[in-house]
Every structure is written in C-alpha cells, then in structure tokens.
Amino acid sequence: MTGFSTLLYKEVLRFWKVGFQTVAAPVITALLYLLIFSHVLEAHVKVYENVTYTAFLIPGLVMMSVLQNAFANSSSSLIQSKVTGSIIFVLLPPISYQAFYLAYVLAAVLRGLSVGVGVLLATLWFAPLDCREPLWIIAFAFLGGGILGSLGMIAGIWADKFDQLAAFQNFIIMPLTFLSGVFYSIHSLPPFWQRVSHWNPIFYMIDGFRYGFFGISDVSPWMSLCIVAVCFALLSALTLVMLKRGYKLRA
After folding, report:
1. Is residue 174 in some structural domain?
2. Could you read off the pLDDT of 104-113 as tens digits, one per residue?
3. pTM of this prediction?
C-alpha cells in the first residue's frame, strides 16, 4: 500500500498547499449564497414545519460544496497531469488501478469534506441546526463525495483539454447540482418538475443529507440511500474499467 499512501498524500497536498483557493474560496462563495437567498426569500418561502428557510438552506449549501469540490479535485488533477504530461510519472510505478482509483477518490472526498465543514462552521450562527441523525449526515457526505470524485475521474480521463472539462462541469454537474433541491423543497414545484427532479441523483444526496439534520425529507431516506449507493457502485465500476483499460491514459 506504499504506492497508494504516497499518491493519496500527493493528492491531498496538492489542494492543501493552495488552501485559500481550494477550501477558503468555496466557503466564501457558499456564505454569499446564504446571505443573498436568506435575505431575499426568508419571509416568502415556506419549507418544512418549524424549520426556517435559512436553516433549510444551510445543509443544502454544505452538501453542494462537498459535491462540487470533490468533482473539482479529481477532475482538475487528472486533466492537469494529462495536459502537462506528468501523468506518466503516476502510471509508471507499479500501483494497481484499484489503488490509483482509491487515492484519487479519497483525496476528492477529503477536499469536499474540508470545504463542507468550513461552510457549516461559517453558517451555523445564521440559524440553529439540530443533528438528529448524524449517521445519515456522515453516510451521505461520504457517498456523495465518492460519487462526484468518481465522476470527476471519469471527466478527467475523458477530457483531452480544459475546455472539454469545463463543458462537462457547466452543462452536466452545475445544472444537476442547482436543480437538486439545494434552494427549495421539490414539493413546491409543479407535478411535472417534481417527477423530473426524481431522475436527478444529486437530489437524493441533498435530501438524504438534509434528513440527518431535521429528521424530515422529501422522500424516504432509505430510498435515497439505496439510489445513492447504487450510483456510487456503478460509477466506481465504470471508473475502474476505464483505468484498467488505460482509456486515454496510455498511448
């Protein structure tokens, strides 16, 4: 496991060395979202009973930060290595593709969780939060980070240049994230858009994570957990197949 631990250390050090950009900046962005949306919509949007809109918003912003930064970490690392040619120094050592996958995804999860904890600490004084089901919070945070970390690896392997990676993020990740119930309960949507939301896997990550704080959710947390776990298994399998075949990694 020496290769795995070294690669993991390299990936963690990569984002931690520029922590102001990779951790502090997303926390500030989430804080701005909270200030704007809570100020404008607090008196106009009703969500769960006995839950203010600001309190409802905080877990969604925390999870959104975890997901976006987990994707950004693995995808940016791979595309930079491919563009600069330094990927060869990762592929040459005798590191199994399973260890390669695990190191990149675990580093992505750690960055996502670092940002998520930062967002939670920065926003807690805006509204009181209960951690009624902490195990659900932990489970969805890790699974969500793992899914987006895997998806980031897929995007980084597939993309040949930064423009393609930006298109993947702007046209797939960003819409799925913003239309996942971060800023609203799907029960406030018309029936058609409620049905559409149920096809968005990120909705189940957000809803299950929020359930851990309030004990209330738009769908059953067990249903969310099953869907998220299946998505993680499928994306992990796809990423491992791509790594095993050396898709766009080996000449």
Report:
1. yes
2. 999 999 999 9
3. 0.94
